[in-house]
């Protein structure tokens, strides 16, 4: 299961605002904000799954090991070479 911290980190790697991710994932902005909340608010599993699939399609790899969790932007990602501020043109 992905965490809110991973989603925030993934957005940062892609240089996406919450509004951009919510639109691309076809989820409500309020649902995304709940998912990313540090307070671990409940979210529908379908929302979490939509967000995960959208980020993976954009080139994010979710990592989980016995040492922790994280995210990585894959080099062959369509967004792997996006300069800050360029996401609006995609």
Keywords:
single chain; 90 residues; alpha+beta; two-stranded antiparallel ribbon
Polypeptide structure, described:
There is one protein chain. With 90 residues, the chain is of the alpha+beta class. The protein contains four helices and two strands, in the order ααααββ. The chain has a two-stranded antiparallel sheet. Helix 2 packs across helix 3 (29-36) and helix 2 (18-25) packs across helix 4. It is globular. It starts with a helix and ends in a 17-residue tail after the last strand.
Structural class category? alpha+beta
Number of helices: 4
Straight-line distance between termini: 28 Å
Q: Give the low-pLDDT segments.
A: 82-90
Q: State the share of residues found in helices, binned by percent.
A: 40-55%
**Overall strand count:** 2
Topology:
Elements: H1 4-14, H2 18-25, H3 29-36, H4 45-57, E1 60-65, E2 68-73
Antiparallel strand pairs: 1-2
Helix pairs in contact: 2-3, 2-4
